[in-house]
Amino acid sequence: GMEERMTNQLSGGQQQRVALARALVIEPSVLLFDEPLSNLDAKLRVDMRNEIRRIQQEAGITAIYVTHDQSEAMALSDNIIIMKKGVVDQIGDPQTVYYHPADEFVADFIGESNFLHATVTDKIDADTALCRFEGQDFEVCGCSHVEKGSACCIVLRPESARLADTGVLSCEVVLSRFMGHYQNYQVMVGDTLIKITDFNPRTHKIYNVGDHAFVDFTKDEVHVL
């Protein structure tokens, strides 16, 4: 068995379990994890983070988990604190931080994002605006904080966009790659590269490099900074 072995004779995952057990036995009110999984391989990291989450919930303790891995932050957290150069940039639950990032830094740090630097050409109502990007106009929601004539940054997540024969933004496909459970696209809208992730490639039309298509999304699938 393992009981006769020294800690340094154990595998990385086993050493992490020993360290966690030693920390829990004193019944702390707060437990700090400082990038505990950084030296483990990818599969073991997923297994360990699930185990850490389960143990933390069963023990009922508060845990502070420091990580540069956004997938770990999303999987483990009830609330996420994003820090930039030692200063808190945003605090929120994973869904809020992901879908409503405070700025470009947060949007880029948590997941992949497309940044559409546009101009507000008109206000349709208090929350909806008409924006122009690469010479093309389209409506977006969440614009109560922007004025007509002002510049804005529109965050479009790759999985929120779709390729279609008609849609919001005319584009040309420059990359089309089958990745197993999703299709990865890169398209050019004017001079801007946009990434698109299609998680249903079996049921959607596949576009090839050189095809003309449209980037399609609804006006509430974006976030305006």
Automatic annotation (TrEMBL):
Keyword Nucleotide-binding: yes
Calcium keyword on record: no
Domain of life the protein comes from: Bacteria
Domain ABC transporter: 7-37
Keyword terms, alphabetized: ATP-binding, Cell membrane, Membrane, Nucleotide-binding, Translocase
Alphabetical list of InterPro entries matching this protein: ABC_transporter-like_ATP-bd (IPR003439), ABC_transpr_MalK/UgpC-like (IPR047641), Mo/tungstate-bd_C_term_dom (IPR008995), P-loop_NTPase (IPR027417), Transp-assoc_OB_typ2 (IPR013611)
Molecular function per GO: ATP binding; ATP hydrolysis activity; transmembrane transporter activity
Transport-associated OB type domain segment(s): 155-225
GO cellular component, one term: ATP-binding cassette (ABC) transporter complex, substrate-binding subunit-containing
Protein name, entry field: ABC transporter ATP-binding protein
Organism: Lancefieldella rimae
